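Reopening this one. Same input as before:
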Amino acid sequence: QVQLVESGGGLVQPGGSLRLSCAVSAFSLDYYAIGWFRQAPGKEREGVSCISSSDGSTNYADSVKDRFTISRDNSKDTVYLEMNSLKPEDTAVYYCAAGPARWRLCERFHTPGFFGLWDPWGQGTQVTVSS
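Same output, byte for byte:
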């Protein structure tokens, strides 16, 4: 069974940092792109960042581009999302999801119409940014 497990969420003050992890099993990061998504209360799910399997190129939503960094460690089967300068509007449940490399989903990671092509999804981890 393919599985993604997010961890690292929690409560942090504005301006603080967190690092989320997405651990994968039953498949290799050599062949899958990994996207990070988030959903805040009352809002639609949105793409946050994506890392490609082929060359490790990265993509970011404009709202996080200068603050978040996505990376991968294929030897550990883990993708990370380092979040710095956190803002209250970053509060959300954060999910990671996998997509086959051949679909090149990182090119459209921010487009809600393509979210259904990501499979599987992790269970999510809560990030709360508050004083």
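So the earlier flakiness isn't reproducible anymore. For the record, The CA atoms of residues 33 and 52 lie 5 Å apart.
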